[in-house]
Amino acid sequence: MPNDTELANQVLVEERQYRWGSFDSADALALGLSIRKRFRSTPRHLKGNRGCLISIQTIAGHTLFSCTVGDLGHPTGSGDVVSLDSWSCLEGMVAVVKRVGHSSFYVEKGMSAMGKTPKQLGVEGSDVRICGGAFPIWLENAPCCPIAIAACYSGSSHEDHTLVATTIRDYLAKQKRPSETFAAPTNPEQSMFLPPQHMHPENPAAQGQSWFSPTMEQTQQPQDYDQSRFAPVDSPSYQHQEETQSTA
């Protein structure tokens, strides 16, 4: 098991690596639903009947996503942490990120590694809760401060932080996948934009013919066509015509 110093350094590496190209309400919705789905598949929820709170909000406090997993009054007790007091804890974790600009789990482990109190670190107050689960969302081209905060609270500091951090990591990896390239037609001689034959029957291209090839009307000869009229000068038929005209 890593010590507190190693865990704090690991969180710093995660914060430097998990940078967003952009972040909007659609990303917040997709990220929040992914966190919810992953928590619902954990043994803590399936076997331990644990609930959780999820919140994603901007650095100014505007709510982008908020939901609960479990109900406080459920007969099975699946919502044992879904209460007003738990929401206060979640907001206290978010307040830590707003003050420090780092993950609440980093503040918790860093404070423990240095042996200092919240008062010595300047994060003391009734509105803060120093435990893991709140993670800052940074933009790649905005190093001044985080743009938003994603937080999850289920009562386990390390597991809540791991859930949020790994979900952000996988979501960013999915966004950076190269898009599928456009597949060319298997038959290069057939144009993709060739209209069907029943749409343009008079169009030679629609019949699979080239625009520069003669059609049947151009190559078909009339029934009363006389080849001797267009025979070459040195041909026998042309000489026969001259002899007939001179005799007459």
From TrEMBL:
Domain of life of the native organism: Eukaryota
Stretches for region Disordered: 180-248
Biological process per Gene Ontology, one example term: post-translational protein targeting to endoplasmic reticulum membrane
GO cellular component: TRC complex
Polar residues bias: start-end ranges: 206-225, 236-248
PANTHER family, per database record: PTHR28255, UPF0303 PROTEIN YBR137W (PTHR28255:SF1)
Protein name: Uncharacterized protein
Species in which this protein is naturally found: Coprinellus micaceus (Glistening ink-cap mushroom)
Taxonomy of the source species: Eukaryota, Fungi, Dikarya, Basidiomycota, Agaricomycotina
